[in-house]
Task: structure prediction
Amino acid sequence: MKVIAFNGSPRKNWNTAMLLEKAIEGAKSQGAETELIHLYDLNYKGCISCFACKIKDGKSYGKCAVKDDLAQLFKKIEEADAVVFGSPIYLGNATGEMRSLLERLVFQYLTYTDPPGSLFPKQVKTGFIYTMGAPEEIMNQLGYNHCMNLISTFLIRIFGHSETLCSFDTMQFKDYSRYVAPRFDPLKKAKRRNEVFPLDCQKAFEMGIRLTGK
Ligand SMILES: Cc1cc2nc3c(=O)[nH]c(=O)nc-3n(C[C@H](O)[C@H](O)[C@H](O)COP(=O)(O)O)c2cc1C
Result:
C-alpha cells in the first residue's frame, strides 16, 4: 500500500503541512509506505492546452506530454493506492501550484466522451485537506465550497473516490503583534490553535487510516 501526499502550501511546516503529516501518520499506522511532496519545490506550469493527451492514436493519448517536474510525479501517482492533496485557501480557492497540478493531472485522463470518462488505469482513494483563515460561516457565505465540490467531482470522475477535510480559522502568523492585522484577535486565534487544531489533526490522522481502506 503506497500513499502519496502533496503539500500545496509554500510553507513546509505550518497548518496544511502539519495536517498532511498527520494523514501520513494515519496511513503509516496501517503499514502504508508514504511520501510527502512539497509542490513549491518543483518546477512546472499548469496545462498549456496542447491537447497531445487527446490526439487520436497519438503516442501521448491519455498522458500529459509536457516534460517537466510533474512527469515523475504522475508516475508516482499511477503507482500509488491513495493520494492526499493539501492546500491553503488562497482567494477562495486552492493555491495556484495546487490548481496547476490538478489541471495537468486530471485533464490527461479525462475523456471528451458523453458522459466524460477516465483513462486512469485503476481506482485510487483520494483525500483533500483545505486550511483557511476564515471560520466556517464565512466559507459558506463566500461560497468556497463551490470550488471544493468541483475539485471533488473531478477527483471522483478520474480516480473513483474523494473525501474532503477543512480546517477553519487557522493561525496564519505565529506572532500577530508583528503584523498589521486588526481584523484578527490573537488570543482567539491562539485558543483555537490550542483547542480545535489538534482535533483537526486527529481528523486528518483518521483520514489517513481510511485512505488505506481500513
Ligand atoms: C495569498 C493568500 C491568500 C489567502 N486567501 C484566503 C482566503 O481567500 N480565504 C481564507 O479563509 N484564507 C485565506 N488565506 C489564509 C490561508 O488560507 C490560511 O492562513 C491557511 O491556513 C495557510 O495555510 P499554511 O499555514 O499551510 O500556509 C490566504 C493567505 C494568503 C497568503
Observations:
- The chain has a mean pLDDT of 97.
- The helical segments are 15-29, 70-79, 96-109, 136-142, 144-159, 186-195, 197-211.
